[in-house]
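Form 12-C: Joint structure prediction
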Amino acid sequence: MAIFGLWIINKAGGLVYQKSFAEGLAQLTSNEQLVLAGTLHGIHAITSRLSPNGSSSGANVIEGETFKMTIFLTVTGTKFVLLTSLTETIAEHILQRIYEAYSDAVMKNPFHTPEMPVRSEGFETRVNAIIGSGQT
Amino acid sequence: MTINSLYIFDRHCICVYYQDWHRTRRPKPASEAGLLPCRTVVAISNELPPPPPSTAGAGVGGLTSTGLAFDEEAKNMVKKISGRDEQFTSYRTSAYRLHLFETLSGYKFVMLTDPKTENMRVQLRRIYEGPFLEFVVRNPLVKMDSREQGIDNENFRAALDRMVRGLPVYA
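Section 2 - Result
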């Protein structure tokens, strides 16, 4: 089981934070990652509009053949995305804890501009403490 | 656990077959939305009276469509992230789960189920290997790539229906 990476996407679909942990997926340039974050934002919006029964949230988990993306949408529209192996079971829990760290270390920081890239040492440390090297 | 519906798209992304099982909201007809069938996303969130149980309509004339343009997007995204030739297989929301199986010839089998179901790729593959190959591919009367006519074959429909109703997740 491995955690490959973490993305934070703001409510406009821009990638504001990105970090890779374990190896296993393609090495992407930051530009490619920005594009993919935008794609994910669009897919998420579409999946919430399609539903065979009643209203639906956007995609919570998107699966490929070797990895999955777990998406956690906060009430303010920020998306936390965790790229993990398919067998990872605690992805939701990890995202919840990262959201806590984000609230404490980023949102409560008076020098942080909302919706802008996250550059915070405190947040970095907390993320490393939660995920470590990406092996669980 | 339920199975909501099954769509089959050909390699031009045209919906060639569609069948419903449990569904509380009627999909919006593609023609009514003024859109090309299947190419575009049709919002199924329109409030309409529940459909008669187990309606089935096939082909482009069958007036049903779903969003598969974004499926291409999802596929590209999955491919890029993994860096391998890898398929997008499923996604899950709070209300439903979409499973996708794509054949080498470009046919896409899409199934909507309850969000709690396991991955249905194997079952979709079995639909392809069983009824689809038997009654569609090996049937000389079916025009495979017509772009005008969907799969309108009673044997296929019956075999598929029997197969889906026999699945453990069907309830």
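Section 3 - Comments
Chain A has one domain: 3-131. The longest strand of chain A covers residues 3-9.
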